[in-house]
Input
Amino acid sequence: MKKAILILLAVALVAPVFARDVDAFVGVSWVEANMAKPGVVILDVRKVDDYKAGHIPGAVNVVGLYIASEGLSNEVPAADDLSEILAEAGIDAKSTVVVVEADGGARFAWATRVAWTLVYAGIPNVTILDGGYAEWTKAAKAVATGFESKDEATFEVKFVDSYIAKKDYIIKNLKKIQVLDARVYDTYFGISKQAFVDQLGHIPGAFSLPTAWITVGGLVRPKAELEAILASTKLSPKKEVVIHCDSGVLATGWWWVMTQQLGWTKVSSYDGSAQEISKDPAVKFVKYTWK
Amino acid sequence: MGFVVTEDVLESDPHFYLGCTDCHAGDASKEKQEDAHKGLIARPSDDPEASCGQCHEETAKTYTLSLHYTAAGMKHGVMPRFDDKGAELFKDKVFEQSCRSCHASCGDCHVKSPDVSGISTGLLDGHRFVKKAEDKTCAMCHGGRVYPEFTGEYGGTPDVHYRKGMTCIDCHTGDQFHGDGTAYTSRKQVADKPSCTDCHDLAKLGKDATKETHATHADTVSCSACHTASAYRQCNSCHLGGGAVSNPAIVLGHSPRTPGQLTTLRLIPTQRETFKPAGISMTNFDSLPNYWDTVPHNIAKRTDRTRDCNTCHQEGLYYLEEAKLPKGGSTKNLELVP
Output
């Protein structure tokens, strides 16, 4: 008996602790079954014109959840602006928010970027429609047109600081932390780079794991596959992980999977990413190496 | 192979009570394409009154005088830089052959997206006549500056109005698209153009401090000077044949068109040698500045200027400076430096 209790206790201690009441990803049938429930907000983050042309009935449209600021392409809006944007969409800290992007392929990481922003802002129950709006229309579900709005909620962001990594902290702790590079292999290896990134290659010692591998055929891979892919990196869940990409979008793909689906607790996403850190003379990228 | 015009399209749009040849001419009785297409008019609405005007008489009539059709703004905006001889040459060799090719026909907005430098995204919805499709029409011609700044795709902040679901026609009314019957030479002359105060009553807007700030600045500072959210396109070399290079920035200076007003300025890529390849010199180049007052379409309630008065009053962060003026630019630029 004592042994059984000890085993249960051990499992409880190592098992992921989720503060969420909804899965990290949901399908069309979940959305259809829950979209009319109080507290559920379907958040369509596609372009306004696309939303107006057709959207999930009752969905609200919000753009501007990542903005260019101080030379960086994708930054979190100021706290007062973000609070207002979300409150105007009828979202508060207790809402269950379903993020809907255009698809689960090219736009997958933009969905996770929005979802990351919401949980970072203090809204724990955020999920993503797997496959995005394309999956909704593929299932021939009802579609509404025009622009819808919800009653304004009362909401003030409470940022969860552990979800975001800052440049100075990364540089200071580079030898202690595990850096995960979520860009494609070519970029990691130093064959090519974005124009706004100053150095070819990657941060020395960074693990490579492209966010593009999370999905297949526009849908998120089964959990067991994601765990197996992640295990191949030899990253330790016991040590701190900082994920980056070029401009803070792709990074949120693995952040979302690791923290919200697989239960990793020591993971942050680096908003400024290579766009920022490659300009710092303290960090010398390495190329033509997988280490 | 699919057809461009399908049965479905024909049945769903009342315009198709007319046959193809009613608009496009040609000969429908001929089987061979070369025979059927003899006399074909590919763009019937290049002549609005002879085509769409057969039913939409009034709209077609005003449209032929509108800036979208005449492109007169492009001509009159630069004319003061020429002497009489240069002005004639410009009209014949540049405006008619280049600028005016950008004029929009009815079909460019209601049937297919307009050609811009030979690129069009094609029919808007089969061959159906579409009332509005701003992201495929307005966005094509105004896609260098206005539209991507409005949606945030240029790399800034989406305009607050766009965030709230508003698109072009929500501010720019039908008269502004189709003309009001007056042949204007500049969009600045248009009688009925949108203004922030059409919707936002400064006397009632916000808390007391906001009201006071608005009252203090209303006569001397444009709305956009404070409420432009992020850097917008400054057109350094887009039309100079050397590729389009743009340095985004917020630039504040004296308005060249509204004396005494501080406003957002946009660098216009006309240089002294711009029309040299056409054999035209600009003898009066210095009569106009290189910047025009502009309203960047990325408006936000809060910006670094609304949050902190020191952004302008102490730092003058975005103010045009003499040292930053383009080399060899117009001497008129100096008048814009605050």
Remarks:
- Residues 83 and 283 of chain B are 6 Å apart (CA to CA).
- Chain B has a mean pLDDT of 91.
- The first strand of chain B starts at residue 252 and ends at 254.
